[in-house]
Write a structure and sequence with these properties.
By secondary structure, the chain is an alpha+beta fold. It has a domain of 105 residues: Beta Barrel (Lipocalin). The chain is built from 2 helices and 19 strands. Strands 1-2-3-4 form a 4-stranded antiparallel beta sheet, with no helix packed on it. A 4-stranded antiparallel beta sheet has the order 5-6-7-8, with no helix packed on it. β17 and β18 form a beta hairpin. The longest helix has 62 residues. It is flat. The protein starts with a helix and ends with a strand.
């Protein structure tokens, strides 16, 4: 019995000693650590609050005192950005749809709608328009990609300009029709060409070999006429034209006045400088 009591006393003393040791460790180690963490948390919260306050202050400074027209411009710019992003997404959707169609077209297992053009002799396809002649007739016309007629098959030849006008040949002479098939220049010319977009050089040669050159705009107005064989316009200065005479070149102005006789093998206007070639010599007029 005494041994049991003695054992219990020893156990009690050991537990009491363990609690005393824990209290000392807690006081010296764990409590300071907890306090340090609490201090760090409080500091972090304080810094976060300061950042929010600064952002709020900066935001208010962006708008306070700014003129109303400036704010309006910013709003319009933001709307423009949003619209651009929306269009970009729409374009992406369209592109994805087109990609799907391409993939379908490449799939030999799928059926596709096709049209038979075997009854036509196709000369050219330009901007969704087909220049073709009916087989056996050799009369040219214009139709769209679904065989709808745009110009009748009644011409000896047809070309389409960059702006969609028709340079047609009938009865051995050439003329111009607009996009709706209305006449811009009569069929009185041996050659017709679009020298710059919206302007057409029409030339006729008489029995004596003499040329008449005229330029019409897209409205059918005659803007230039001269009794010479004009071959091109100087794109850097469209008031001057190069003409050919007996294999040599000269210059006339928009009024038809000869400014440089046809004594040169070639004439080139580039970067404001007129280059000329005579024989083996090349010179420049600045």
């Amino acid at each position: 019995m005494k041994k049991v009591l003695l054992a219990l006393v020893i156990i009690f003393l050991l537990l009491l000693n363990a609690f005393a040791v824990y209290a000392v460790v807690d006081t010296l180690i764990f409590q300071p650590r907890a306090q340090q963490k609490a201090i760090e948390a409080e500091k972090a919260q304080t810094e976060a609050d300061e950042v929010k306050e600064t952002e709020k202050k900066d935001s208010s400074e962006v708008t306070i005192g700014v003129p109303e027209d400036v704010l309006k411009e910013r709003e319009e710019a933001q709307r423009a950005l949003e619209e651009a992003m929306a269009k970009s997404e729409e374009k992406m959707s369209i592109t994805d749809d087109f990609s799907t169609k391409i993939a379908d077209l490449a799939n030999p297992m799928l059926e596709h709608n096709t049209m038979d053009f075997s009854e036509y002799i196709i000369k050219e396809i330009k901007d969704g328009k087909i220049i073709a002649a009916q087989a056996g007739s050799y009369q040219y016309g214009v139709m769209d990609l679904e065989k709808n007629e745009i110009l009748p098959f009644a011409y000896e030849d047809i070309d389409i300009s960059d702006e969609g006008f028709y340079m047609i040949k009938k009865g051995g002479k050439m003329g111009i029709l607009d996009q709706d098939g209305l006449r811009v220049a009569d069929n009185n010319y041996d050659t017709v060409e679009e020298i710059i977009k919206g302007y057409y050089l029409c030339k006729a040669k008489d029995m004596g070999g003499n040329y008449t050159s005229k330029i019409f705009n897209r409205n059918g107005d005659e803007v230039f006429s001269v009794g010479k064989n004009v071959v091109s316009v100087f794109e850097e200065n469209t008031n001057f034209f190069k003409f050919e005479e007996n294999g040599k070149y000269g210059i006339v102005d928009i009024n038809g006045e000869e400014r440089l006789k046809a004594d040169f093998d070639d004439l080139i206007l580039k970067d404001g400088k007129l280059y000329f070639k005579q024989g083996t010599d090349i010179g420049v007029i600045e």
